[in-house]
């Protein structure tokens, strides 16, 4: 599952993205990768979090999505 969010405001010169992905790993854990930065920039920030079960990982993912929405990011369809 991949969730991509953007925040674009040309007046403030703000072109940001935030991507959240969730996937199982080889050790029966769940991994969430958070990636963010400026749209089309070569450098990006990344953070990986490991969870013991899918429900905990999904709860964290939903929490991050709510946080992005509160901060003015818009979900990219698809």
From TrEMBL:
UniProt xrefs under InterPro entries: WGR_dom_sf, WGR_domain, YehF/YfeS-like_WGR
Domain WGR: 1-78
Name this protein carries in UniProt: WGR domain-containing protein
Pfam families xrefs: WGR
